[in-house]
Amino acid sequence: MLSVLALFVAMLGGIARGGTTGSISGTIVDAATKKPLSGATVTATAPSGRATSTTDGAGFFNIYNLAPDTYTISIALNGYEQFVVAGVTVVQDQNVRVDQALVKSLREIGRTSARGASNLVQPTQTADVYNVSSKQLAAVSGAGGYRTLYDVIQTSPGVTSTGYAGRPRIRGSDVGDVAWEYDGIPINDRLTGLFTTNLSTVGTGNLEVYTGGFNAQYGNAGVGVINSVVKRGSSPSFGAITYGFATEPAVDHIAQFEYGNATKDGRWSWYIAGIRGTTDNQFANGYSGFSNRCAANLSDCDPATITNNDAVVNVHWRPNARDDIQFLTQTGNEKLPWSKAMPSTAVGVTLCNGVVVQPGTRKIINPGVSASGQPCVDSTGPTGLQYTAQNLQNANVWYHYSNLGKIQWNHVFSEKLFATFRIAENFNQYIFYQPVDNANFDGSLKPGTPWDSTKSLGNQDEYSDRRSHIYIGALDLQYTPNAHSTWYGGASYERDTSAEHYYDFCGCDDAGSGSAFNVDGSWPNLFLAVDYPLTLPSAYLGTKQTFGRATLEPSIRYDSETYHIPNKADPAAYARGPYTVSSLSPRFGAAWAFNSSTVLRGSYGITTSFVPAAYVFNNSPNGITEQDGRINSVYYPGAETKPQINHSADLALSHSLPNGVDSWRIAPFYHKSNNKLALERTYVVNADGSVTAKGPTLFKAGIVNQATGAEFGWNHVVRGDGLSWYLAGTFVNYWGSISAGTLAGGTPYGRPIDITSYAKNALVRNSSQPPVSVSWTGDYNYSHLHIAPFFNYQVGAPYNVLGNQCMDPSKTAAKCPAGMLDTQVHFARPNTWASLDTRFDILKRGTSVTSIGLNIRNLFQNQYADVYPVVNGSYPKGPSSSDLVAYGPDANLPNTLYYYSPDQARREFIFYLTTKF
């Protein structure tokens, strides 16, 4: 015991960690005397495994290390009637209480009802956590297509996104505030803070969604946690094969399979699943004007055929009743070509033959010769570049590769002490290959001829390699001495060897340096390089104590992160060695059970999010002033990388109806995030009212976000045939601040702010998400027929939160058209999205079922998507504008900080055939 505690103290770590197993505990007493019964054998049995426990002198039993599954609990003691409780559902990170009284004679003492994981009343749970079961996931996503968590996560209360199937936010947070996990492995990279896998739902057994009140076990989670738990094999075996295809206007093909099995003795189990999907998206509801605009500037707005491949293997070995060793691996890759309507005459740039550049000055000594035999010069002088032909598959293509691996050892020291040790690897890579320079509609810019800088559009002209390689070691302990007390703690250590390299082919794209060459004369220009390691140690400690109807759960967490910045001799580089930040995060949760059907819970907690490495230091060989002149160093005077501190509080009331089918929960919440990162640049207002920028653009931790709101859920879950449904609603009053006297490019507003109108940290409406979002998921089964409708409705996001372009100080020199000044906050058009999945079993033979189905996506053919907070000055508005066709009747509004982006596919019909065996 002392050695285990010593190891716990020695291993300090700092990552979000979710469990992959649950537990069952309870107290067994004599029905007549109410005295505790010792020596009773309690057995939990499910397809995924079997485990036993024996009650102690207080009648208490505890069974650790149970895979998420539905168990039958049997209780046996000599001299007493055996008691069996069926349908006890266990999910990860949660304990199920089974308290029972045994009788000595053959008489019925009442029926014990098992509480399913989908029941929104969990009496001793102090966090707002929702378990999205595999059945619910299947209902909301349908079959026959490639699905990610974006497609299914809005079935959970508290989760919203801008439009449907967008990046999820939890309780008014930013997208980077959500901690993602895959079977307990953190999948947020440390470069950007976003996720590292394709987020495919293949192989997912259930989702654990924490919207608030999560304890100190979870770190680097700004507001919420989403943990995907992978299925595991069982005996008898199970499997499924699905093939689906869609008709015009979009062409989809998917092939998906899964298989799980286990040995009869339960020592070995294995599960494997995979999917391949190709999707040919047609956006803008078929309006060619939108596609032509994308083709004209070759922007990232119109993807062509997307290819996805994902696979997972999950193996468990249980050498004895106390040990479970897991081997898990996941792999995925994605290819996403953009600019679907790109003309065949598009060109990019490449290096000419024989180019010589003087090191240290970037001066071109010899411009070289193009493939056509001409010197590589234009009217401005030598360029050293020539045109190259581009097509849809190589002009603007993104590649994503992800690989996860985990070895986890779960060990039951005793029925009261449980430990989990894991080592994990997380590899993630994005390749952005975007060499295209010019759409070149008339074909006048011939491949192989010298590049002309005066005709360059600089559309993409870059190559980017962003990768993270994360290694994790973690230990978690849980000690449950009795029915009223649980203690837990853990520690981990993470090391990242990451890299982010951005190359500019022509010197005219993002770098802003005006040169395609590096200072050493090499090509292309490496204008951003983040290639130093990170280390993150942390530790946490907490306890859950039950006093009658009350449950209290205080916990505390320590996190630290070190950016191992190289120590360079050149003081202008502002590279002065490793930089460390740390934080202490206390959290408190409580629950009060009025009875077994009604529970009130609440929490207050502080969480910390560290600044991603990409915003801390640029190790480019060209110096840190590359990439738009941004000073990307924590040591630069005025720069700040304070950890983001989040304060969250909530109160939730849950109630389960007597019918055992319905339960609901309502939870008002509040959170405030300080020290959010923003790009800032000082500016001055000139006498004529125009704006002049002054000084470098800095990263500063000076933005505040604040949200109040409430989430609501109602689950109606039936067993067997009938209609189950899940209602989720979220109201968010979301505000963000501005930093007076700056260009707050990192805020959602992205333009100069009048320093006379707004004080520092003044809060204004945030236009990044809708204030109201409601979803309804249905799952109807009757004999051979299965129908699953899904409906999502959103009140449009606010826009024009800072006034339209006429309020922009940089525009005051130009007269604002009469009647075009607009200072009111507007709300975008409501967004409605629906799908319908219908499946019919055509062949049943034993446990094997073959079905045909139809999945209709975007059932109502919603023609309008979300609202983006950007200036839409390039879109002419007015009664005669063709935009009225593409954007609807609101297209004649003045140029405000928004535009309608009709980026949703048209209605799609997906036919599929599936066989389960």
From TrEMBL:
Keyword Membrane: yes
Gene Ontology cellular-component annotations: cell outer membrane
Coiled coil: none
Alphabetical UniProt keywords: Cell outer membrane, Membrane
Pfam families: CarboxypepD_reg, Plug
This protein's record includes keyword Membrane: yes
Localisation per UniProt entry: Cell outer membrane
Superkingdom of source: Bacteria
Domain TonB-dependent receptor plug: start-end pairs: 129-224
Protein name: TonB-dependent receptor plug domain-containing protein
